[in-house]
Amino acid sequence: MKIRKGRPAELPRLLELVEAAIADLEARQIHQWDADYPGPVLGDDLAEGTLYVQTDKGRIVGCFVLNREQEAECDARNWRDKNGNAWVLHRLCVHPAYRRQGIASGFLRFAEQITAEQGCTSIRLDVFAQNADACRLYERNGYENRGTVCLEPGHFHCFAFEKVLCRQP
């Protein structure tokens, strides 16, 4: 299985992946994604060239987005990397049939490698606070919880995570 940039023609398959992930999250009582997100933004991610996929025998088994767009609510975080070149990970998704096979950790290693090659000093992300599996994934991979972010006031709390890839001078 290889990680590569997604192609616009793959949007229908990506939407199927996200639908399967939403059903799995709902079955686990994690009300993180729905018909409004993330599906409708994937086309933009593909057009911008920021969406990556992993396939297995032609089937898309996971995806993630990597860019420099940070939610405004995260700007005021107490980031460790205050003056560096931070990139942001979004919409990491693995098909339920492929969970717990190291794909998500592989995505993180891949993201760290390609961004470091471009002078990135840290990777940031936000994760739904009720998604304990995702929080553990990031912690196991060296990401540090930098506090709570409320993306939808009153009901959508996330944790802001960061991994510093290199020390600044």
TrEMBL record:
Alphabetical list of Pfam families matching this protein: Acetyltransf_1
CDD domains: NAT_SF
GO MF terms, alphabetically ordered: acyltransferase activity, transferring groups other than amino-acyl groups
Keywords on record: Transferase
Domain annotation N-acetyltransferase: ranges: 1-169
Alphabetical list of InterPro entries matching this protein: Acyl_CoA_acyltransferase, GNAT_dom, MshD_Acetyltransferase
Descriptive protein name: GCN5-related N-acetyltransferase
Source organism of this protein record: Ethanoligenens harbinense (strain DSM 18485 / JCM 12961 / CGMCC 1.5033 / YUAN-3)
